[in-house]
Design brief:
The longest helix is centred in the first third of the chain and has 20 residues. The protein is α/β, with parallel strands linked by helices and 183 residues long. The chain has one domain: NAD(P)-binding Rossmann-like Domain (Rossmann fold, 3-Layer(aba) Sandwich), CATH 3.40.50.720. It contains seven helices and eight strands; from the N terminus they run βαβααβαβαβαββαβ.
Length: 183
């Protein structure tokens, strides 16, 4: 079980992924360079939890316990340090994702699994930003994350079996169904 999760990007997908991580019991660090985006994310995540309570999907005491596991970070280094698993959910811009992944490669533990939420970019190409391409795989969530059960797990040319297994295990802990595809 992953205890410490880092989600990079507090936009629609990032905050949805952070919600899924909290629901799975992970201490979830959410990074974004925008303080406004982080506060909007906290508010949106709290609203989704309250909606789940009102629909009878979570007990009344579930949201406070889950939200206590959420921390917001404006520093990527701080958010990624000691994380066992990092999910990058930056906008779909190749140069931006390559930059973020290179920074994560330096900031995260060497044993941390790195996943990207890309829906269109090459996992193999994104993995060129890392010293060890085996540790990156695709973990494509569908929007809205809290309602959509499917996660597409994408193996790049060098993605290791251990990385794939780690991504699948986290997706299942989040209550997601998975489909594994090769790039």
């Amino acid at each position: 079980m992953i205890e410490r999760l880092c989600v990079v990007g507090a936009g629609t997908m990032g905050r949805g992924i952070a919600y899924a991580g909290l629901l799975a019991g992970c201490a979830t660090r959410l990074y974004d360079p925008s303080a406004d985006a982080l506060e909007r994310a906290r508010s949106e995540i709290a609203a989704v939890f309250q909606q789940a309570v009102s629909l009878g999907k979570l007990p009344d005491d579930g949201p406070p316990a889950a939200l206590a596991r959420l921390s917001l970070h404006a520093s990527l280094d701080e958010a990624a340090q000691d994380a066992e698993f990092v999910i990058e959910a930056a906008p779909e811009q190749l140069a931006l994702k390559l930059d973020v992944l290179a920074r994560l490669d330096a900031a995260a533990r060497a044993t941390a699994v790195l996943a990207t939420n890309t829906s269109a970019l090459s996992i193999t190409e994104l993995a060129t930003a890392l010293r060890d391409a085996r540790r990156l795989g695709g973990m494509h969530f569908f929007n809205p994350v809290h309602k959509m059960k499917l996660v597409e797990i994408v193996r790049g040319l060098e993605t290791s079996d251990e990385t794939m297994a780690g991504i699948q295990a986290l997706a299942h802990a989040m209550g997601k169904d998975t489909v594994i595809v090769r790039e």
